[in-house]
Amino acid sequence: MSWPSRRRRLGLRSRVTLVYSIGALVLAAVMAALAFGLARKYLLSERETSAKRQTFANARLVRSDLRSVNADITAFLGTLPTGSESDALIYRRGQWFGSSVGLGFDRLPKDIVTRGLSGTAATQRFDYAGATQIAVAVPLTEVDAVYFQVFSLRELDSTLQILSASLAVAALVTTAAGAMLGMWASRRALQPVRDVAIAAGDIASGNLDTRLRVAEDPDLAKLAGAFNAMVDAVQTRIARDARFASDISHELRSPLTTLATSLVVLARNTSGWTDAQRQALELMTAEVTGFQRLVEDLLEISRVDAGATNLVLDDVVAGEFLRRVAAVVYPGVCVEIEPDADDALLFIDKRRIERAFANLAQNAERYGGGAVRLGLRRSPFGVRFEVDDAGPGVPAADRERVFERFSRGGAGRRAPGTGVGLGLALVSEHVALHKGRVFVEERPGGGARFVIELPTAAAS
């Protein structure tokens, strides 16, 4: 997986926290490295200075002793204040003398031996037996000798290891603190974004009265003001469109009623009419009836948009309700009711839910060859009503779009006289008023299955 794709999967808050963590880690690592380097340099310099001071002091003692004719060099080396962390060597007239049995000239680096024997004082750090050593060479030309003293830095190495471990722990603690600071900062910085997301979700669900609180911060105040102005404009536009549709529907209602009544009067006396005249009357009657249905649907939609719907809620037994709907709306259609859902109690507006079933019946008749089965069973949501048809089904890409206003599915399933696409939209509105949901899925064996899920009375 590439880094860009992985980065896209991280949320904004996670990315801010990650940046803080990485920044804290880099800063802590740099500071730890600098602190360790400076401390190591200082401690080594101090230890080297101390080693030189002690070596030159011991060299003066050796020079004084070697001026004696009968000097016992080996015994004298044992009396030098070398300490437990250092050893001494003397080279005189081709012979090596050491204060320790384990210390031989082969332990010394060749470079410092060469420089010492050439009469030059020298200091050199080297590794021996897994520990850092410091060797100091002091030529004693007056007595024809060279004094070497070797200091072990094992204790200093242990101190530096403890220091490095402490700095590493401090770096990790700093990184954790940076991550916590990043989480806190991202939470505070992204709170306005979360508020906008929550408000947008409320508005999308239909609560157009939602507004953002204007913050004291001037930048956030601009965001809140622009968002609230946008919502005001949307609310005004929706209200204006709803009023327009309602006014138009009301204005069309009266002339349509007059026209429908006139057609009924004409249909009562068609004697002497030709077949073409009767066919024209029937066509006009069908179109006026469809137009009346459209106007009623538009009025119903406008009332929903305006929040002027009044629910008349009653306690209803789910099984009895479905049987009554089947007898009135779906005569002759198979009804399957599972026993555990038969006596489920609903708290619904019977007229609106019956209208929803009637619209589903019309939709099945127009597009699915008619309803072939009604079902009722329990669901985690409450109860589940199912309306199956024998049509070609609804493609997955259209299963949400069919509940939109003025949507009639794919062009291949449209036919003259099939309505304007408000039937399923009204089903969705009626069910939403009951805190339910409606959707369509594939029917086992082919066709479409429209599902209405409603909460039970206890859940409501």
Give the distance, in angstroms, between the N- and C-terminal Cα atoms.
Answer: 47 Å
Sketch the major β-sheet.
Answer: 5 strands, antiparallel
Helical fraction? 55-70%
Q: What proportion of the residues form beta strands (DSSP E)?
A: 15-25%
Return the string of H and E elements.
HHHEEHEEEHHHEHEHEHEEHEE
Seen as an oligomer or otherwise, the chain set is single chain
Tell me, briefly, the overall form.
Answer: rod-shaped
Number of helices: 11
Question: Radius of gyration in whole Å, from Cα?
Answer: 48 Å
Arithmetic mean of pLDDT: 83
| Strand segment count | 12
Uncertain spans: 411-416
Could you say which structural class the secondary elements and strand pairing correspond to? alpha+beta
Q: Widest sheet: strand order? A: 2-1-5-4-3
What would you say this structure looks like, in words?
This protein is of the alpha+beta class. Helices cover 55% and strands 17% of the residues. The chain contains eleven helices and twelve strands. It has helices spanning 3-9, 12-66, 73-79, 110-117, 154-204, 218-268, 275-305, 318-328, 339-342, 350-367, 423-433; strands at 86-92, 95-98, 122-128, 131-140, 145-152, 314-317, 334-337, 345-348, 371-379, 382-389, 437-442, 448-454. The chain has a five-stranded antiparallel β-sheet, sandwiched between helices. Strand 1 (86-92) and strand 2 (95-98) form a beta hairpin. Helix 2 runs antiparallel to helix 5, helix 6 (218-268) packs antiparallel against helix 7 and helix 10 (350-367) runs antiparallel to helix 11 (423-433). The longest helix has 55 residues, at 12-66. The chain is rod-shaped. The protein starts with a helix and ends in a 6-residue tail after the last strand.
